[in-house]
Amino acid sequence: FITQVGAELGLKNLRAEHARVEELGAAPFPVITSRAFASLADFVSLTRGLLAPGGVWMALKGQHPADEIAALPADIEVFHVEQLQVPGLDAQRCIVWMRPRG
Fold this sequence. Notes:
alpha+beta; four-stranded mixed beta sheet; 4 strands; 21% helix; 34% strand
């Protein structure tokens, strides 16, 4: 999906890495995304070493994950929660934007 979106939007510098997080070695990444992966705390913990300085995490979630946000480490800032309307889907979705405090 990411590769197709990049092609359709002409984003030549977009590269999708589809692999287990433990196998990624081409860090650092300016943006790390997840969909149906883990809790926010686990997502951040497992990918922290892969995030470039000044980078951000973006996690696709269903309903606003207030409990997961509250469970994040103190050095992680949620700076935006973007509500999404997915065509043809009658369910809540949002993207949680996070970055290291600093």
